[in-house]
Amino acid sequence: MKKLLARFRRAARGSSIGYFIQPRKVRFEWQDTPIDWIPQQPFASYFINEINMILPAGEFWFCRLYNKVLPQIQDEKLKQDVQAFIRQEAMHAQAHNSANKDYLTERQIDIQRNISLMNGLFNQLLADRPLGLQLPQWSERHWDLFRLGIVATVEHMTCVLGKYALYNREWQRQGADPAMLDLVKWHGAEEIEHRTVAFDLYRHLGGSYLARYNLSLLVIAGVIGLWVDGAAHIMRQDPRYASIRPALYKPWIWREWYRTAQANNGLLPSPFWLVSQQLGYLMPWYDPLHEAKTEDALAYLQASPAAQRAQLKVA
Ligand SMILES: [Fe+2]
Ligand SMILES: [Fe+2]
């Protein structure tokens, strides 16, 4: 019990990590990456490619929101964590945008519909002024806290997915394209490295334990729905799926997701596994520090070809 209370107090105080998060520059080259970046696995390739469209608008939104609340942070170390987090997320968004522009668009995939959907969600609905409405002053703090709670919940998911990506061996075993493999693993490793920041900030600014339940339901349904809908849209453009016409509301895409996850020894995380990973987040003793191993993430980041390429360019 004493230990539990000590853990609560430590997390509420401010930063829960002793190490310093390191923002890194990266550079990806997409000229050799095929649409089926996992050979003969179009479903898994499209499904993972969809994250390039889902992430940038949300990550830039994290940065804007965190910059807005930065002056309210009382703990110096947490402030430094948040500043490093902002720089990492901005780099993630740029890296995925480079894949949208120099890889998917170059291969005649329409990305605009999915990107517009995400822009509408993050730039309008979840903006400081939702849908252009000026909120009353008394509600501004609640609106910020609600949005910080969304970020903390999403960051739990990105940590879980980051772990999945970092330890995945099957993509490589099936001959996955090195650039896309590195993008997914580099991003996953940095999600692990900064996994405590959103949760620490949410608690530091007064986020409640109970709100995590509602936010968790909202976020898991929203992320999975947007992911499947976006993946269906890019698959529909491929003649191989012409007869199926994948869509969010058709059982086919859900069955195929589950089948691909089960049949291939780790090409995709199963939807059930993904939902089950939210349970830990709902526990009163949840501590993101215990969700993953920072040293494994740092070991990958040291060796990431994209990070090394950017360093060479700077040198
Ligand atoms: Fe990210
Ligand atoms: Fe993140």
In short:
It is built from 15 helices and no strands.
3D architecture notes:
With 315 residues, the chain is an all-alpha fold. The chain has one domain (28-115, 142-307). Helices cover 66% and strands 0% of the residues. It has 15 helices and no strands. It has helices at 2-13, 42-49, 51-69, 76-104, 112-125, 137-167, 170-173, 178-193, 197-204, 211-235, 251-263, 271-276, 279-282, 294-303, 305-314. α3 packs parallel to α5 (112-125). The longest helix is centred in the middle third of the chain and has 31 residues, at 137-167. It is globular, with a radius of gyration of 19 Å. The protein starts with a helix and ends with a helix. 39% of the residues are buried. The mean pLDDT is 93. It binds fe (ii) ion (2 copies). InterPro entries: UCP07580. This is Metal-dependent hydrolase.
Name a few traits of the molecule.
15 helices; 315 residues; Metal-dependent hydrolase; mainly alpha; single chain; binds fe (ii) ion; 0% strand; globular
Shape assignment:
globular
Q: How many helical elements?
A: 15
Kindly give the count of domains. Answer: 1
How much beta, percentage-wise? under 5%
Rg calculated over all Cα atoms: 19 Å
Low-confidence parts:
none
Structural class designation:
mainly alpha
Mean pLDDT: 93
Distinct small-molecule ligands in the complex: fe (ii) ion
- Please bin the fraction of helical residues: 55-70%
Protein name: Metal-dependent hydrolase
Pfam family, one: Metal_hydrol
